[in-house]
Amino acid sequence: MPAQSIWTLLSWGPDGWSDDIAYGVIVTVLLALATLPIGLTIGFFIALGKQSEEPSLRLAANIYTTVFRGLPELVTLFLFFFGMPILLQHLIRYFRPEATIDVNSFVAGMIVLSLIFSSYASEVFLSAFRAIPKGQYEGGYSIGLSKWQTMRLVVLPQLLRIAFPGLENCWLSLLKDTSLVSVVGLAETLRNAGVAARVTKHSFLFYSIAALVFLGLAVVSSFATSAILRSLGKREAQR
Amino acid sequence: MSATAAMVERPPPRTRGWPRPRIVGYALVCLWIAFGLGIVGYLVFAWNPAFFAKYAPAYLRGLGVTLSLVAISMVLGAVLSMPVAYGRMSRNRILSGLAYCYVYFFRGTPLLVQTFLVYYGLGSFRPELQMIGLWDFFKDAFNCGVFAFALNTAAYQAEILRGAIESVHRGQWEGAASLGLHKLQTLRKIILPQALIVALRPYGNELILMVKASAIVAIITVYDLMGNAKLAFANSFDIQAYIWVALVYLVMVELLRHAIEWIERRITIHLKR
């Protein structure tokens, strides 16, 4: 292999690796964005369960967070990625014996990251729930709103505002955790950088680029979240 | 607690019958029980003495590797975090800027990327490293893991330390100064004892995070707990390799969590009324 200059390696096109890494960045961002709504929804309901008066509901929610916060992310991912096909295979054997099952690494990553993200987000939601005084619920009920309406119209807007900084932290760790999915073969930033590193033998260069990409994503999201916070604050002030 | 707490507020009487939350709660608990029984049932059903005899010692060795990796990097990180925290709190622009960049880099990038950067990336500088005699250190995956983990946890621990020290009221510094204690004495005898109570919980969380994150070193060919599970799975294609390792991690994390809670209860006894 002829010695190539670093600029050729970093160019866009068949000789360079920029396009591969850019493709990886898109996959990383898509994975994180696809996980976010699922994780937020599950996390919200887990938090609801945790602050419920019903002990069995609290127990079920607590088991959920204990398990998914206690297991290393990598172990959860491997268990799911390798365990799920076996389980599904056993189930499907009753219907169609010849079928084989493969779990898509993007979907597996999405599910596992939602489980982890939701268990962390539920803690954030829980402490936000505790910061909302009981009078808000009572006020909602006293003007004739139903339980669900009170939650949606009175509590949720305040809840999101209180939980926002905590959720931002959850989002940043979600963004970092996406790199783990490269281990089960998803062609995201780290994996593509790794391929480039192995092919070109410039490991330090390409892994540094991967690090810079994640750093850049963190910077972009902190800009985005501070913009959202500002607009939230403005709306608060106008009222 | 004020006088109002003396008026005991009775919990509301438990609702009878089957309201919707109770139905959902029981259903979910039953689901968890079924899940747990399923796993136990599977482990009993798939019980394989040969598998156990072959891999149990490896798992134990792996546990030792994991624990020593976490312990060494936590201690090194704690040592390294002191100058970083000092830099973060310093009035010197350059010093605080450098410390900020360090913390931002290590908290803003995934630990996996940092580990790869050390293990594979430093291989690019092999001749230079050989020249200064550091190659023997970085040749070993375990050392690389410790190096990356120590740098990473130092950034987090520096922030914990800084937060804890800044949580102590300024009057404490002034009071100590007026008694004629110098800075280091103040820090050691007055500030740190108060700061460490605040810092205990975040330190505990960091320890738990490190135990969980240590599974990552399995990817750079260290045979820690996870590495041995990977090996066992690759050899046997038996999913119980991962189930066992998950149970071990879960037990480890829960033990740590309860130990930290116990310590916190012990050392804050004087703060409770």
List keywords for this structure.
heterodimer, A: 239 residues, mainly alpha, MetI-like fold, 9 helices, B: 273 residues, 11 helices, MetI-like_sf (chain A), AA_ABC_transptr_permease_3TM (chain A), membrane (chain A), transmembrane (chain A), ABC transporter permease (chain A)
Largest interface: A-B, 51 and 51 residues
> Which CATH top level class of chain A fits?
Mainly Alpha
Look at the structure and name the CATH superfamily of chain A: MetI-like
Give the count of structural domains of chain A. 1
Name the overall outline of chain B.
Answer: flat
Structure overview:
The complex is a heterodimer of chains A (239) and B (273). Chain A has 239 residues and is mostly helical. Chain A is 79% helix and 0% strand. Chain A has 9 helices and no strands. Chain A has helices at residues 6-9, 18-50, 55-70, 73-92, 105-131, 134-142, 147-177, 189-200, 203-238. In chain A, helix 2 (18-50) packs antiparallel against helix 3. The mean pLDDT of chain A is 88. Chain B has a single domain, classed as Orthogonal Bundle (MetI-like fold). Helices cover 77% and strands 0% of the residues of chain B. Chain B contains 11 helices and no strands. Chain B is flat and about 70 Å long. Chains A and B meet through helix 3, helix 4, helix 7, helix 8 and helix 9 of A and helix 1, helix 3, helix 4, helix 9 and helix 10 of B. Chain A: The chain crosses the membrane at residues 21-49, 70-88, 108-132, 204-229. Chain A: Keywords: Cell inner membrane, Cell membrane, Membrane, Transmembrane, Transmembrane helix, Transport. Chain A: It is a multi-pass membrane protein.
